[in-house]
Structure formats: C-alpha cells, structure tokens
Amino acid sequence: MLNRNCIAMLSFCMLLCFSGITHAQQQTLSPLKVSANGRYFQTSDGQPFFWLGDTGWLLFTRLTREETEQYLNDRKQKGFNVIQVMVLPGVTAANIYGDSALIGKNVGKPLTTSGSQSADANQYDYWDHVDFVVSKAAEKGLYMALVPVWGSPVKAGLVTEKDAVTYASFLADRYKHFPNIIWMNGGDIKGSDSMHIWKAIGNTLHSKDPGHLVTFHPRGRTQSSDWFHDSSWLAFNMFQSGHRRYNQDTTAGEKHYGEDNWKYVNTDYNRKPVKPVIDGEPSYEGIPQGLHDSIEPFWKDSDVRRYGYWSVFAGACGYTYGHNAVMQMHKHGDGRGVYGVREYWETAIHAPGAGQMQYLQKLMYSRDYATRVPDQSLLAQNGQGYQHLQATRGKDYAFIYTYTGSNISVNMGHIAGRRVKAAWYDPRNGETKEIGTYPNNKGVIMFDPPGEEKEGNDWVLVMDSVK
Fold first, then answer.
1. What is the pTM of this model?
2. d(CA 447, CA 459)
C-alpha cells in the first residue's frame, strides 16, 4: 500500500509529465527561504533571490492555456521571476472554460473531479487548470505567489473560519510538493477586517505546508506588520503603497506617506524580529493617479521605476511591478473594463516600464548582494518629494538613486578603498556611463547627472572601491 505522501508525490510526477516538465528542469527550482540575516530571499543552495514580481491577478480565471503560455513566456523574457495571482477572486470564481472553483459558493467545498487532465476530457476542472498554470510557470523558472481568497468576499462574511481551515488545508495538500509556490494570505484588505479568518488561513498553510513561505497582502497604504509581524506563519512583510499621489493621500486615520514608499520599508526594516520586506503593490503603469477617476493623469514608466529604486535601495528584498491592463487581463470584447483601462493585456505586456524592471534586478545582482544595506549617511544633503535621494551600499560599492537628475553630494569614505571609481547607471536601458576615478575616498564630492533636471530623468550613481 502506498502511504499518503507517496500518493501525493506520484500525483505530482504525473502532473509534471502532463505539463511537459522534466525532472531535470524541476531541479532548477526549489522553494524559497529567508536568508540567515533575515533581509532577503535565497534558494535552497544559498544563492540570493531578488524578487521581481508582476501582478497577473486574474491569470487563472481570464486566460486560456495558450494565452497563459504567451504571458508567462513574455514575463520570463523580461526578467520577472514571481507572478502574483488570485486563486479565488470571489466565491463564484470560474475559469475561461466555464469550470467553477467551488460547490455552492463554499470555499470549504472545492469542486474537483477525478480522471484525465487532457484538454479535451470532461474531467478537466478549475483546479486542474490551476495545476497546469503553476506547472507551466515552474517549467519557465517562475514562482507563483498565490492569494488563496481575495479579501472582499471574506469581508462580506462569505467565508467562515471552519471553511477557511478546510480550504487552506486543501490548498496545502495539493500544492506543497510544487517547488514554485509562495502563499500570499489576505488580498487588498486590512488584517483587522475578519482577522480570525486570516489567522486561520495563515496558521493552516504554515502548519500543513511548512516548506513554502507565507506573507499577507494588505490594503493600500497599510503593511502586513501592522497586524501580523510577530505571527509565526508570516515569513516576510509586504505592504501596498497604493495608487495615490502626494496630494491625494489625505484620508483621516491612514499613514500619509504619499508616494514615499521607502517610508514603509524604513518602518519594517527596523522591526524586530528582522524579516524581509517588499512593496507588493505600488502604483500600476497605465492606471489613473488615485485609481478611480479616469480623467486624472495616468502613472507612467518613470513612476514605476521610482517606486522600485526607492523601495529596494531603502532595504526591500525585491519589487512587484503592475500594469492596469495586465493585472485584470483586459481583453477585446470586455467593454470598458475597470480603472479607466485603455489597453489590452497582450499589448500592455510590452509597456515600457515592464521592460525596464529587469535593469533594477540586474543592478542588484551585479554586486555582492548579501552585504547590501541602506545607508542614507552617504548623502551630504537630501530633498523631499521627487527630490528625495535614496542610497544603499555594500562593503565596496554604493548606489544612489535620483528621480529628477538633481545633483548628488556624497559623503565619501563609507565604502572600502583608497580610491573610488564612479559611473552613471541608466534605469531605462541598463547602460553605464563612466564618470572617472577619484584618488581620495574622503570629504564631500558633488556629482552632476546627465541631462537637465526634471521628473523622470532618473539615474543611479554607482561607486566602486579601487584598491
């Protein structure tokens, strides 16, 4: 007789055969873990992992298998390595093939069928389709950050604690053997809304699937640490800096960080115990500023770059990008869509910001990742708002980001070496322009970025030790 673990592993191997994933390909992926210093992610062999995520929220429900392949191929080519997806956008969730996820809108009763997973078989169901997508992502080296159930149906009282435990147990049992799973509890909601449900899901996932990381995706302008930092199931903190510009962030009782997403990082970076932190939903490219009014200006590629470099240089362990049309998988024939969407997903995947995110990842991998810390003492002076400069360094290098191309006055001597070599790194294309070598790593040196000072003329000052 096969025991339960053997049966589960056999089922997983059969799924891999169905999806075309070989054993050798699977060996390139392993569940992520938190580094020993608690600051970043790493693979099972100890290699640093920089989270570069995309919000493909409705991937499971909106795209066919062929469209899924197109989307995942594009994201892999652009350097993304994590896809954030809703498993259940609501209790009436169904996929593009008409397969419902639940029996009677009850999360405690997933609608599963036994039998073949062939595309033409009647037995192919909602969960088989989720399996297919997750396996395809693994084949391409992509991790899936799965939101079990979005916050709105939970807040509406459509999920009981008992059913939440049953459902989370189902997910843990089904996906614990997949190498590319990250659990993202919550879903655009405050932890204080139905907290007993979020605790039940988090504790169940952590206890039944201890091999995969769990976090919490909160409401805009809040962070998981507001409620769950000390929870044993929360492996890392996530915040949603949201979609408002400075003068729109005026709601009473909320944090008024405006567009300064680096402030959320600062808060979590200094918490004890130490846990990684990431902006899981900043302003999306191609969405109205403030989110709901389509006559407002739309966020651009320069904005998503700013959010990325600010948060990562402040100490975040990665960054999640989003695009309005892609996050909702807006298609021809959908009508107006939501949030003033102006594009369709298959063209929006080529938006400039999406292609530029890889240069942030490449820059972070270009130096010793494990020694990196945020260090604002590098700056002899700093500004506010868009004039804010953000600095980070390792033992023998430093990066300083300016969004406007303003002058950067640097307190030298913060990295090793008697001399320092400096260069400009272009966040738009990853190209480097050499500045020169400075014979004395002392005093204050002012650096003048290329071009005129204006919003979106962003640059990274790169300094390396010269022995």
1. 0.93
2. 11
